[in-house]
Q: What sequence folds into this?
């Protein structure tokens, strides 16, 4: 006799991590602890970089922003992230960046996890920056300039403290309200904070310079005269064609480290340079196949645009972190008929008709 129940089976249910549960996870573990864990997962996956299918993200650009899909896969899992970037959203009370992601089984194609990734993207971006800083920042660095105090700012500060030991921050944003917001959020967290009146003054004494602005244009946030010998530049604002933050002369005297060259040459700071300008792939540094920082006076530049493997790592982390907890909800996402060939029969039964 056919089971007439329309209750979803276990195979129909996909674990879902909501924003509320992502915040619970952060509060339970501590943000800096999560950043360290994320960095570990990212480093593990970068060290097995050749195992992944890789492609530049698929982008749909408009005059208002960009919507992107970021896929990758290894032999066991497939992952993708949906993410947007709309700088004008803030004028209307919307986030500049929102995201969600899926991790699925390569064996069955069934999703194993659906997760919010607005918060998680901020975390994985910061964790990646801090991880790269371990390889490229000057030894004993304590001071970081943060130029651009939007949604990513505080995450970067915490990641560089958790992973690199940064304790002093110099903050600047073209919008004083953003600078004040960042200082307010970071107050009481153990940093020594200086609010700066200009980008120029913010880099004074900084051993690490992080640039993270949102305007979708070729801007010069950091000029060549602002960058002295021996600094590490963490350039995370560039993420699409026509959007840059650094003067090209800085690039020409820096050793440039990238995630995935075919994507970075389209979207990153190096879109300003010839296609054959040499860059160093970070996965090779993490595997010991290429040098990172080699000299005290060397200028290192992480031309960060974000790559799908870091999102894959973040989803792996979340799947492991929520397993066996109540920080996940079962989502009735997949049709699961009694007979895999009889999908239409589910419709009939839902209408109260016998199949």
A:
């Amino acid at each position: 006799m056919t089971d007439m129940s329309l209750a979803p089976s276990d195979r129909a249910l996909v674990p879902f991590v909501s924003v509320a549960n992502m915040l619970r996870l952060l509060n339970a573990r501590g943000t800096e602890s999560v950043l360290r864990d994320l960095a570990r997962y990212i480093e593990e996956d970068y060290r097995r970089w050749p195992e992944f299918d890789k492609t530049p993200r698929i982008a749909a650009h408009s005059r208002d922003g960009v919507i992107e899909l970021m896929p990758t896969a290894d032999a066991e899992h497939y992952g993708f992230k949906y993410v947007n970037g709309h700088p004008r959203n803030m004028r209307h009370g919307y986030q500049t960046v929102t995201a969600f992601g899926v991790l699925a089984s390569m064996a069955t194609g069934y999703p194993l996890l659906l997760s919010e990734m607005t918060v998680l993207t901020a975390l994985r971006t910061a964790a990646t920056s801090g991880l790269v800083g371990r390889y490229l920042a000057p030894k004993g660095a304590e001071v970081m300039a943060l130029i651009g105090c939007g949604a990513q700012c505080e995450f970067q500060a915490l990641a560089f403290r958790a992973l690199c030991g940064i304790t002093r921050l110099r903050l600047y944003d073209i919008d004083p309200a953003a600078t004040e917001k960042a200082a307010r959020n970071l107050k009481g967290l153990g940093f020594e904070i200086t609010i700066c009146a200009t980008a120029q003054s913010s880099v004074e004494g900084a051993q690490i310079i992080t640039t993270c602005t949102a305007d979708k244009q070729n801007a010069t946030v950091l000029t060549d005269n602002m960058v002295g010998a021996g600094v590490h530049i963490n350039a995370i604002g560039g993420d699409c064609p026509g959007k840059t933050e650094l003067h090209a002369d800085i690039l020409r005297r820096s050793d440039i480290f990238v995630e995935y060259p075919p994507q970075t040459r389209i979207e990153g700071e190096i879109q300003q340079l010839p296609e054959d300008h040499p860059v160093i792939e970070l996965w090779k540094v993490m595997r010991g196949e290429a040098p990172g920082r080699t000299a005290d006076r060397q200028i290192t530049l992480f031309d960060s645009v974000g790559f799908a493997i870091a999102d894959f790592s973040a989803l792996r982390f979340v799947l492991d972190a929520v397993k066996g907890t109540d920080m996940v909800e079962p989502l009735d996402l997949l049709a699961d008929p009694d007979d895999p060939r009889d999908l239409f029969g589910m419709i009939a039964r839902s209408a109260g008709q016998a199949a």
Notes: The chain has a mean pLDDT of 94. Residues 118-136 form the longest helix (19 residues). The first strand starts at residue 13 and ends at 17.
